[in-house]
Amino acid sequence: MVSKIDLDHIEMMQYDVLKEIGNIGAGNATTALSMLINAKVDMKVPKVELLEFRELADIVGGAESLVVGILITLEGDIHGMMMFMLEKMSAHHLVNILMGKNIDNFEEFTEMDLSALMEIGNIISGAYLSSLSQLTKLFISSSVPLMSIDMAGAILSVPAIEFSKVGDKALLIQSQFGENDTEVNGYFILIPTLESYDEIMKSLGL
């Protein structure tokens, strides 16, 4: 089956739809994060781009920057992967707030910290997928999340290898939460199969 969407020459209306999906998803995830840490969370307008896999690492600080990556596989009406990435410093900020620790505590993550990080990623990713499902009226289920703390290049190589055979682009939603000294940079990377892009567009009448 030939896909109706060409990610190398995407139509403006299709791109606008993808950007709107990114905006709504990020807003929903921010609300979930606010409820999780029981504090008001401000979010700057997310930056949504369709990028090649090789460009993603530079956005998060370079291939050798340390990040926390939480990866889930998408199933149901939509197939693909979604990854939520945090710069390691941002991950410390979130865990410190959630666990009631000193905001400037940057010691190595404990087992409890890692469990909290996994929960943060799970809830934020779930909120994002929920908004996508509600918007498109499509059924989307996800696998148990896999978490890794490693260099950005190594973490991003997993979806890149998996999806390079169907395309070399991913939808990146870059969000900033919080204020100044406690600002958290979060990155949602949505990688549907080309057939799933078609399903999303069809569900929205395009």
Description:
Keywords: Chemotaxis, Hydrolase. Residues 13-49, 112-145 form the CheC-like protein domain. It comes from Anaeromicropila populeti. This protein has 206 residues and is α+β, with helices and mostly antiparallel strands. It has a single domain (7-203), classed as Chemotaxis protein chec. 45% of the residues lie in helices and 25% in strands. It contains six helices and seven strands, in the order αβαββααββαββα. Strands 1, 2, 3, 4, 5, 6 and 7 form a seven-stranded antiparallel beta sheet that branches. A hairpin with a 3-residue loop joins strand 2 (66-76) and strand 3 (80-87). Helix 1 (12-37) packs across helix 4, helix 2 runs antiparallel to helix 5 and helix 3 packs across helix 4. The longest helix is centred in the first third of the chain and has 26 residues, at 12-37.
List keywords for this structure.
206 residues, alpha+beta, Chemotaxis protein chec, seven-stranded antiparallel beta sheet, 6 helices, 7 strands, hydrolase activity, CheC, CheZ_family_phosphatases, hydrolase, chemotaxis
Compose a concise summary of this entry.
With 206 residues, the protein is α+β, with helices and mostly antiparallel strands. It is built from 6 helices and 7 strands, in the order H-E-H-E-E-H-H-E-E-H-E-E-H.
